[in-house]
Write a structure and sequence with these properties.
The radius of gyration is 20 Å and the shape is globular. The strands form 4 sheets. Strands 3, 4, 5, 8, 9, 16 and 17 form a 7-stranded mixed sheet that branches. It has a 6-stranded parallel sheet with strand order 12-11-10-13-14-15, covered by helices on one side. The protein has a two-stranded antiparallel sheet with strand order 1-2. The relative contact order is 0.16. It contains 11 helices and 17 strands. It has 2 domains: 2-158 and 314-346, Medium-chain alcohol dehydrogenases, catalytic domain (Quinone Oxidoreductase, Chain A, domain 1, Alpha-Beta Complex); 159-290, Rossmann fold (3-Layer(aba) Sandwich). It is of the alpha/beta class and 349 residues long. The structure holds NADP nicotinamide-adenine-dinucleotide phosphate and zinc ion (ZN) (2 copies). NADP nicotinamide-adenine-dinucleotide phosphate binds next to helix 1, helix 4 and helix 5.
């Protein structure tokens, strides 16, 4: 077993504190990664608080992982010691089902999440990237392009792919009007990717504070959702809207902003369910959709797209000792625009 140190929540809603644990033995197709950076996704907070009811403890969160390969199993073909690599939200899947065979491993009913799951040995809990080392099968590891600085690449592994996948599926591009609802970790990378795809990008944010930043990231327009006039002015305007907000919104108000055949894609996962008004859907044949991260090959495609378009995340780098403070700031929407943990700060513990 591999001895690892990290930070864990020992029970629901607990603060994160130092934690030592073991990872499973290295298998033939496995890679050991020395973790350098890990982004803080809002999902980590939902999970620590058990807001979705499926959390297990102790829990080491973190699924936006970048590091260096330090050891490889005997059969590993794709990576060598020293490679700069990443791991996202899942570390294995069944590899046989319809979803897996289409490269949509994230929709596999046996997908193994980076934390909060049980390894294929049937007993070892998976633990995430707020730690110094992880073991992952080579088929579930991403290559980080050289021209993206590691700490600014880390949030691409979840936030980046979560926006790239629906923007591609619903064909954001020239002539398309895209709205990004919520300017946090997911939203900010959504602006950059939609802009690079050539779409007209509008940000809908619940306060005016982030307007200047949004424009710098490539947004063409910015509107405040606390102003009721926004919903009158933009009625029937958008082709595609991506809702990244982590709390419940009146989705009907947002559906009304879609044009004929427009689509709202829900990616934010609030604790409470939304109520949908049928008229908001049928009055313009609107579509209500959802999207979950992306598969391994699409995640690699997104990383290569970001490399080509010089896209990286806007981050605040923190030592792990500040993780609980960062959680509070995220909950207050005070994030510019992703916290990334520098795992060097773990020291020897
Ligand atoms: P985040 O950085 O906290 O951003 C969420 C944004 O939502 C905030 O910055 C804020 O933007 C807006 N917001 C927060 N409270 C609000 C309120 N009361 N009213 C209106 N807007 C509010 O979170 P994130 O990491 O981007 O994650 C967002 C959500 O996506 C979470 O629920 C997360 O679990 C989920 N997620 C889903 C997937 C997937 O695959 N579908 C993947 C990753 C994360 P403004 O200040 O601009 O309004
Ligand atoms: Zn995430
Ligand atoms: Zn499968």
């Amino acid at each position: 077993m591999l001895q690892v140190i990290g930070y864990a929540a020992k029970e629901a809603k607990a603060s994160l504190t130092p934690f030592s644990f073991e990872r499973r033995d290295l298998l033939d197709h496995d890679v050991v990664i020395d973790i350098q950076y890990c982004g803080i996704c809002h999902t980590d907070i939902h999970q620590v608080k058990n807001e979705w009811g499926r959390s297990t403890y102790p829990m080491v969160p973190g699924h936006e992982i970048v590091g260096t390969v330090s050891q490889i199993g005997s059969q590993v073909m794709r990576f060598k010691v020293g490679d700069k690599v990443g791991v996202g939200c899942f570390v294995d899947s069944c590899r046989n089902c319809d979803a897996c065979s289409q490269g949509l491993e994230q929709y596999c009913s046996n997908v193994l999440t980076t934390y909060n799951g049980i390894e294929k040995d049937g007993k070892t809990p998976t633990q995430g990237g707020y730690s110094n080392k992880i073991i992952v099968d080579e088929n579930y590891i991403l290559r980080i392009p050289d021209n993206i600085v590691s700490e600014r690449a880390a949030p691409l592994l979840c936030a980046g792919i979560t926006l790239y996948s629906p923007l591609m599926k619903w064909k954001a591009g020239p002539g398309k009007k895209v709205a990004i609802v919520g300017l946090g970790g997911l939203g900010h990378i959504g602006i950059k990717i939609a802009h690079a795809l050539g779409a007209e990008v509008t940000v809908l944010s619940h306060s005016p504070k982030k307007q200047e930043d949004a424009k710098k990231m490539g947004a063409d327009n910015f509107y405040t959702t606390s102003d009721a006039k926004t919903f009158e002015k933009l009625e029937g305007y958008f082709d595609i809207m991506i809702n990244t907000v982590s709390t419940d919104l009146n989705l009907n108000q947002y559906l009304n902003l879609l044009r004929l055949d427009g689509t709202i894609v829900v990616v934010g996962v609030p604790e409470k369910d939304a109520q949908i008004n049928a008229y908001s859907l049928i009055s313009a044949r609107r579509n209500l959709a959802g999207s979950l991260i992306g598969g391994i090959s699409e995640t690699q495609e997104m990383l290569d797209f970001c490399s080509k378009h010089d896209i990286a995340c806007d981050i605040e780098l923190i030592p792990i000792q500040k993780v609980n403070e960062a959680y509070e700031r995220i909950l207050n929407s005070d994030v510019r625009y992703r916290f990334v943990i520098d795992l060097n700060s773990l020291g020897k513990m």
